[in-house]
Amino acid sequence: MTAIKAQYLFSLFLFILLSCNSFDEETANWSFVDLPTDSDLCSITICNDGSFHIVGGDLWERGIYISSPFGENWSIDTILNKQLLAIDQNPIGNMYATGIDGYRLQKRCDTEWQIKQPKRWGNMKDLAFKEDGTGIIVGGESLILGYMVLNLGSGNFQTIDWDRELSSITYLQDAVYILTGYGFVSKSIDGGKNWRQNEVGGDFFIDSSFPILHIGYVIGRNGTIIKTRDQGESWETLRNAYSLTTSDLPFNAVYFKDEKTGYICGDQGLVLSTKDAGLNWTIFDNLPSIDFLDLICDQDGDLYVLGKEGVLISIEE
Asked: Does the predicted model carry a pTM greater than 0.90?
């Protein structure tokens, strides 16, 4: 009787485990975008004029920049001898990029890249800039080494070393930034000079998305999803990757196009979508088994997901 009871309890636990970790499945209407490269694609942004801009490359060999006016007729340039990891634009449309070695690149949408020497050599993973050209670049390696470069304007820079790897930086407004890294999320209200850390540990927090100023989402590498409703003052857990009833998922990037509709991409063809502000998630079950590294929606609301081996796919939504 005891053995039967134990077997029943184990079966019940296994059922609960699988039930709590399941997602609704959806078949995506997707297609490959033909690009002139098979190098890894790391980061994407879309300007207000509808033009696409992508950076990536081969780890220690070259950094590439790919662009297109409207998602067709792509052009490619090799602009560094190391991989580029991040591209972003400030609120007035000027673009910035960085990557391995920490070079700083900047341009307007219709000009050539200006390449600036690193203020801190290292593996720089993300950057965010204000309207006036001041901003922050972050990066790190080996989980316990973090780097930050503050561009304070007028050629004035400040470098800060951290005891944990930094992964993403998001500019919100005025002097407010959100920083994520290994085991923490932090907020600065003075342009990055001082940081207030939130006690939301338990994962390597690698990316964030704020569809509006006060509502934002952060994901962890192992599948944690957290949400703020007060511009990063406090966070609630939507998915705990380390719960007994939740298995790890290899997340890489998150993007919300409005308060309710958002997407997460990850390794081995993983793309999740939500239509109810993160309460429930659906998994696309028919995508190619590629490690997806970034994603964004165009002006028509269609989703673009990019990743290793030069893969860019479009998903009609």
From this structure: yes
